[in-house]
Design a protein that fits this description.
437 residues, alpha/beta, TIM Barrel, 2 domains, eight-stranded parallel sheet, two-stranded parallel ribbon, 16 helices, globular, binds D-xylose, binds nickel (II) ion
Length: 437
């Protein structure tokens, strides 16, 4: 078998003292923490689109990526070779999962029928490679935003034919995800939003989106696909307003249209910051609704206002993520999916390794740090204590919905005023977290 990354060995754990850029310093897949290996805790996944299909262009210049295996053609043979490259990469990196859009793995044809056939040809290779390596599919999805037909959206397009085309495309993407044993299927509303309200019937578009998702739920049942459906919130880009704005907007949409039992959220860090939230905020919102499914692990640049999709390197950020995920009890079907791309200046194949090794190490440190904070217990104890006054008899009755304004007035009137407040101790808690970094 040909090697596409000659000279790159299987990446192994070198330990914190290692100075080898092709070794993990913190990610030790076999290390067991609380009865689960690091590999099982983190469930790392590589995305096909940024890693193997992104030429690294920007609005001011063409792609720079050096990908010696790619002959630049839109042929099935080129796509099949790329699939082999991808699996050599997954194997050498030691990730258990990957994720794809239909159009990343196989070239779009002149007709939908031809596109379906191209997919089938590449899926054969993916299936063999999965069997050979044991690498699994975390989730599949359909690209409903690149082709010009989707300029006005897909499930929210004013053009009914586009809606039908999108449905047929998703149907096929679900089928191949199912065939490849995918643990999930993601819906990211690529252009489901608007650029101006002057030409938009928002209510009608949202109704259509809900109908589309209900049909997907019905089809999932029909084919017996048992994976998790995810919605991935994003507030803007490419449209100025995306309907799946943030976790709260998605939950409201899912509840309004009776879809909540069928979906979980796939939260992406850079999307959270674009919405004006910290990732931890989005995670807490989703967890509170019992709807956190998976994460797209990346980060933005605080000085740039768009989805830069950089690899996560901040241990503070990964610690926050892992605190939430561990408190939730860990992932079930989801994982830490690196929806991230190397910079345009990092154009060599080896940069793909450095980027992922860094992201995996950052999350391994986040996992260990979060675990230590939880084991220490002071942070959780502080939060519990902060709400202690609610543990009185009337507080409990209020929480249980068994008290009214009359009860509260009778309680507080004789006291004259509320008891004194306690300090929030933000700085002390920030110091506490830093003790573990
Ligand atoms: C784009 C999204 C996209 C989804 C998959 O911003 O992150 O890559 O994860 O369609
Ligand atoms: Ni994403
Ligand atoms: Ni994104």
């Amino acid at each position: 078998m040909s090697e596409f990354f000659p000279g790159v060995p299987k990446i192994s754990f070198g330990g914190p003292k290692s100075r080898n850029p092709l070794e993990f310093k913190h990610y030790n897949p076999a290390e067991v923490l609380d009865g689960k290996s690091m590999k099982e805790h983190l469930r790392f996944s590589v995305v096909y689109w940024h890693t193997f299909s992104n030429p690294l262009a920007d609005p001011f210049g063409v792609g720079t990526a050096l990908r010696p295996w790619d002959d630049g053609s839109h042929s099935v043979a080129n796509a099949q070779r790329k699939a082999k490259v991808a699996f050599e990469f997954f194997e050498k990196l030691g990730v258990p999962f990957y994720a794809f859009h239909d159009r990343d793995i196989a070239p779009e044809g002149w007709t939908l029928k031809e596109s379906h056939a191209h997919l089938d040809e590449v899926v054969k290779v993916l299936k063999d490679e999965q069997a050979r390596t044991g690498v699994k599919l975390l989730w599949g999805t359909a690209n409903l935003f690149s082709n010009p037909r989707y300029m006005h959206g897909a499930a929210t397009s004013p053009n009914f034919d586009v809606f039908a085309f999108a449905a047929a495309q998703v149907k096929k993407a679900m089928e191949i995800t199912h065939e490849l044993g995918g643990a999930g299927y993601t819906f990211w509303g690529g252009r489901e939003g608007y650029s101006t309200l002057l030409n938009t019937d928002m209510k009608r578009e949202l109704d259509h989106l809900a109908r589309f998702l209900h049909m997907a739920v019905a089809y999932k049942k029909q084919i017996g696909f048992a994976g998790t459906f995810y919605i991935e919130p994003k507030p803007k880009e490419p449209t100025k307003h995306q309907y799946d704005f943030d976790a709260s907007a998605c939950l409201n949409f899912l509840r309004t249209y009776d879809l909540l039992p069928h979906f979980k959220l796939n939260l992406e860090t850079n999307h959270a910051t674009l919405a004006g939230h910290e990732m931890m905020h989005e995670l807490e919102v989703a967890i509170g609704a019992g709807a956190l499914g998976s994460i797209d692990a990346n980060t933005g640049d605080p000085l740039l206002g768009w989805d830069t999709d950089q690899f996560p390197t901040s241990v503070y950020l990964t610690t926050q993520c892992m605190l939430c995920i561990l408190k939730m009890g860990g992932f079930t079907t989801g994982g830490v999916n690196f929806d991230a791309k190397v910079r345009r200046e990092s154009f060599e194949p080896i940069d793909l390794f450095y980027a992922h090794i860094g992201g995996m190490d950052a999350f391994a440190r986040g996992l260990k740090t979060a675990r230590a904070i939880l084991a220490d217990g002071r942070l959780a104890a502080f939060v519990k204590e902060r709400y202690r006054s609610w543990d009185c008899e009337l507080g409990r009755r209020v929480e249980a919905g068994q008290a009214g304004f009359n009860d509260l007035e009778s309680y507080i009137l004789p006291k004259g005023d509320a008891a004194k407040n306690a300090s929030g101790r933000q700085e002390m808690l920030e110091n506490l977290v830093n003790e573990f970094l």
